[in-house]
Amino acid sequence: MVLPYGRQSIDESDIEAVAAVLRGDWLTTGPAVDRFEQDIAAVAGVSASVAVTSGTAALHTAYAAVPLQQGDEVITTPLTFFATATCAIWQGATIVFADVSEDTGNLDPAAAAAAVTGKTKVVAGVDYAGHPIDGPALSKVAHDAGALLLEDAAHSIGGSLDGVPVGSLADVTTFSFFPTKNLTTGEGGAVVSTSTEVLDRAREFKSIGYTRDPEKWHAKGDQGGWYYEVHNLGLNYRLPDVLAALGSNQLHRLDAFKKRRQDITDRYNAGLAGIDALRTPAHREGADPMWHLYPLRIQDGRRRELFDHLRGNGIGVQVNYIPVHWQPYFAERGYRKGMCPIAETYSEQEVSLPMFPDLLDSDVDRVIELVREFVGA
């Protein structure tokens, strides 16, 4: 049996929460969505959130709500899932890749500052593996340029930096609730922001761009109960109640998920410490990560061999990520290897070991033993 690198944790209370919606009147656009949005806002330390159908939809919605326009530039990291970049391109923006910090793999504020131009509209950091970005430094870079800071927190809901929750560190933050993430709705995501204007635009964009709010209508007076207006283009990114109910119930266990992920990280760290060829994940002072990944780095050039060794022994490891600018889409548009050498080196060394709340200590120990066996420790 293969040990997966990540998987959901579903219990009977999750199943009952979904079943209760199925027994009710609302499968979508109902009260479970409203409740889930309130629950997410509370965790993020903000007043409201907008639930959507995926982490990718959250990014697309956030970029649309900024709003990005043709010719705007977005500075971001190449050490991420490619949607962090491609969703901005859908809104007409140009991507400018900046390098990462060598320890965390997060967007380096100095590299981001060096990439700023008069066209910079958004600086988009990613909480790689669940370690929060340097929010204060990146906010300064963005705000000094007249831009906004977006935090792609697909890995990190429930984390914090210096006591400030992820969701309150940036102007706009996006979450993902894919099954391998820190809580799940099956597929799903959310946008939070410190700006009510951004949230209003996000809510309209994810609802196909139309509004039933009479205060926003161009037409005046009583137009009838059927009336609505479309002011801007949008998409149907509405999260259904059945999935929102699962998310709200999962949030009851978020603290337990976080503790278990930290315990697993600590166990890996202890078991793999003191081995010259290996680099365990960094943890900066003041950061309280919500570990989504355990990104081990092997520094002797044998990442492929370690990957195959673990896979061959039934351990479902992964690599996170192939640098975005190496993808053919970007290579064909002039992006080149060598642009972000720190991120590229990180990627070439990285192997994600299994990490999920239901992982047993014995499973962690088995992984540690296989890694130590490979490096001869």
TrEMBL record:
The keyword NAD does not apply. Pfam families: DegT_DnrJ_EryC1. The keyword Membrane does not apply. GO terms for molecular function: pyridoxal phosphate binding; transaminase activity. The active site is at K181 (proton acceptor). InterPro entries: DegT/StrS_aminotransferase, PyrdxlP-dep_Trfase, PyrdxlP-dep_Trfase_major, PyrdxlP-dep_Trfase_small. Its cofactor is pyridoxal 5'-phosphate. CDD domains: AHBA_syn. GO terms for biological process: polysaccharide biosynthetic process. The modification N6-(pyridoxal phosphate)lysine is found at K181. Keywords: Aminotransferase, Pyridoxal phosphate, Transferase. Belongs to the DegT/DnrJ/EryC1 family. This is Aminotransferase DegT.
